[in-house]
Structures are given as structure tokens and as C-alpha cells.
Task: inverse folding
């Protein structure tokens, strides 16, 4: 009995650790503010950790690794995560999911609890399938949040560009000066994109279009197309940029309103579950009495 209780406690602790890993704690406010001053996403001075080199690096150039990272390439780019790290996270999570059930049932067998081998097999397959999809879903969720933050910074950037154009600045100088006026990773990406376009001898909006294609922000590509149609005439470019900034702000307000409504709906779910349990608790004795009387 003592061994079975100990094995049950170990299994519960393992399940709690798995749930804790899948649902991490909220990031402290200080760390979140520190990320705003982080360097550009394209710079990676520190080498990959050892577990990434061990689990992910050998799979990057394989067909399986390329197929696993092709669909989330833009998402990995905007969150600053390499394909090797994404593959390493996936391999580690899948391995833990596949080995958790056999290890748990092996401990139960050592404690004298007989279990068929089919049960841990099906549990491992189910957990493995879930673990295979969890890293991709986490990357997409984080990338969506980063794109929302980038659009907010882009709206501020476009407002600055419109003000500089209204003051008589040229298109290139307005874009470069506005990108240098802001801080954070989003403005660092904009500065890098404008610098790359200047080094290639291309118009500045081509660099913004290339950046939008890399990180999956369509507003940058739409802005580049509008600026290209307007040409070098500052007044026409200013009208196009001001309209795009207004559209980005309206979309941000709509997204914020939708998120607030979704959060309000989620808050009602615990109350519904509580009332359902209360109704079942009250109605079960009556239903059981009727069924026993038949």
C-alpha cells in the first residue's frame, strides 16, 4: 500500500510538471518591459544552447526538419527563434510525452499494480500526437502577439513619417528619421530594413515590403505598394501613409475590442460549469431513486 501511494504521488507530480510546462506562468512586468529594449531579431550573438545543438541542429537540413519548420518560418522569424531551437523543443516534448506513460506504468508494475501493456501504448500515442502539435501552436500564438505589437509600433512610425513629410522632408529622409526616433525591437527591424534597401540601391519602401514578407505583416507590403504608386511626390505619399496609419489604428481598436469581448465570454464559462455541477449534484439522488425503484 505504501509503495502504491508513493508511485501515485510520483505520477501526480509528473503530471503536474507536464501541465506546468505546457501552461507557463505569466511573464513578470519587468521582464516584459526589458524585452522592448532587446536588440533586433536578426542579431544572434550568443551561440545555441547545448540541447538545441544536440536535438535540433541535426534535423534542420533533413526533409522532416524542413517540413516541420516550413509552415512556421515567418512565425519563427518574428519571435526570434531559430528552426533548430523549434525542432529541439518539439523533439524534447514528444520524447517526454512518449516516455511518460511507460515510465509511470512501469513504476506501478514495480509496486505490484498489474496493468496491460495496451493501455500505456495508447496513452503514449495520444500524448505524442498532442505534444507534436503543441510547439507549433505555441509559436503561432506568440507570433500573433508579436505581430500585434509590431502593428502598434508601425502606426506610430507612420504618424511620424506623415509629420516629417508635411514639414517638407523627402521620402527617404522621413522614413529614416522616423525609424531612428523610436526604440524597441520593432523600430530596430524598421531601421535594419531601410538600411538594407539603401545598401542594395533600392527605394526605401522596397525594404519595408521585404520585411513585411519576412515576418508576415501585410500592412508593410500594402504600404510599400501605395508608396511605389505615389512615386517620389511627397504630398501623395503623405496622404497614402496617413491613410494607412489610420487603418492600422482602427484595426488595432477592433482587435482590442474583440479580445475584450472574448475574455468576457471566457469569464462566464466557470460559472456555467459550476452551475452544471450543482444541478447534477442536486438531481442525481432523485434520478438514482427513480432508477432503483423500477
Result:
Amino acid at each position: 500500500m505504501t509503495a502504491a501511494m508513493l508511485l501515485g504521488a510520483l505520477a501526480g507530480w509528473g503530471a503536474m510538471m507536464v501541465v506546468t510546462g505546457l501552461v507557463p506562468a505569466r511573464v513578470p512586468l519587468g521582464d516584459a518591459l526589458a524585452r522592448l529594449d532587446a536588440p533586433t531579431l536578426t542579431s544572434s550573438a550568443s551561440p545555441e544552447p547545448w540541447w538545441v545543438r544536440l536535438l535540433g541542429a541535426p534535423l534542420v537540413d533533413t526533409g522532416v526538419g524542413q517540413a516541420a519548420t516550413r509552415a512556421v518560418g515567418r512565425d519563427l522569424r518574428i519571435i526570434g527563434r531559430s528552426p533548430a531551437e523549434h525542432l529541439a523543443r518539439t523533439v524534447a516534448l514528444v520524447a517526454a510525452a512518449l516516455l511518460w506513460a511507460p515510465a509511470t506504468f512501469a513504476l506501478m508494475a514495480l509496486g505490484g499494480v498489474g496493468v496491460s501493456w495496451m493501455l500505456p501504448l495508447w496513452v503514449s500515442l495520444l500524448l505524442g500526437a498532442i505534444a507534436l502539435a503543441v510547439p507549433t501552436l505555441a509559436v503561432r500564438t506568440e507570433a500573433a502577439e508579436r505581430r500585434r505589437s509590431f502593428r502598434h509600433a508601425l502606426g506610430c512610425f507612420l504618424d511620424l513619417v506623415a509629420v516629417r513629410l508635411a514639414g517638407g522632408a523627402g521620402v527617404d529622409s522621413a522614413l529614416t528619421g522616423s525609424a531612428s526616433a523610436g526604440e524597441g525591437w520593432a523600430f530596430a527591424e524598421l531601421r535594419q530594413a531601410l538600411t538594407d534597401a539603401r545598401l542594395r540601391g533600392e527605394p526605401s519602401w522596397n525594404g519595408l515590403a521585404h520585411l513585411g514578407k519576412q515576418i508576415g505583416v501585410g500592412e508593410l507590403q500594402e504600404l510599400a505598394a501605395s508608396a511605389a504608386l505615389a512615386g517620389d511626390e511627397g504630398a501623395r505619399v503623405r496622404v497614402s501613409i496617413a491613410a494607412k496609419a489610420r487603418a492600422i489604428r482602427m484595426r488595432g481598436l477592433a482587435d482590442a475590442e474583440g479580445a475584450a469581448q472574448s475574455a468576457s465570454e471566457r469569464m462566464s464559462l466557470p460559472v456555467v460549469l459550476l452551475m452544471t455541477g450543482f444541478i447534477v449534484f442536486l438531481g442525481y439522488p432523485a434520478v438514482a431513486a427513480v432508477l432503483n425503484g423500477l
